[in-house]
Amino acid sequence: MKKPASLYHATYKPLVLKIKTEGLGGNSAKANWPDSKKGVTYWAKSADIAYSYAETCESVPEDWLDQIVVFECKIENFDLKKLFLDSNVIENDDATFEYHGIMPFDKLKEISE
Predict the structure, then answer these.
(1) What is the C-alpha to C-alpha distance for residues 76 and 34, in angstroms, rounded to an integer?
(2) What is the pLDDT of residue 87?
(3) At CA 1, angle to CA 104 and CA 81, rounded to 5?
(4) Residues of the chain whose pLDDT is less than 50?
(5) CA 57 to each of CA 19, 34, 63, 80, 108: distance values in angstroms, whole numbers, following the listed order
(6) What's the angle, vertex CA 97, arms to CA 78 and CA 112, rounded to 5?
């Protein structure tokens, strides 16, 4: 797997305050997909891919779909021993990843989509 410079995670504005206090993947984080695992956050190698997952989620309130936030995180902020290819994607072409840990808010940079 070629190591990207950054990875991206999309979420929703109503959750940002909680992420600021607990970090991304904190104790009260809830899974938005049936196959998501507790304690794991999902990342993509591009902001567009991350955004596309957030905009197709069916388990969040519909008005949240207009409030998507994309975070960028530099690869050096990840503990690479906790970063894996996304096991939920059958033919993963290094496009999505799962991180088994919490990412502190100060390591995230909000980007415009």
Answers:
(1) 29
(2) 85
(3) 40
(4) none
(5) 19, 10, 12, 27, 22
(6) 80
CA distances from 24 to 18, 27, 47, 69 (A): 8, 9, 16, 13
Helix (H/G/I), strand (E/B), else coil: 107: helix
> What is the per-residue pLDDT for 37?
72
Beta bridge partners of residue 98, listed in sequence order = 42, 84
> For every residue of 21-57, which 3-state class applies, written as one string?
HHCECCCCCCCCCCCCCCCCEEEECCHHHHHHHHHCC
Instruction: Quote the pTM value.
Output: 0.89
Q: What is the DSSP letter of 91?
A: T
- Two structure tokens written together for 49: 């891919």
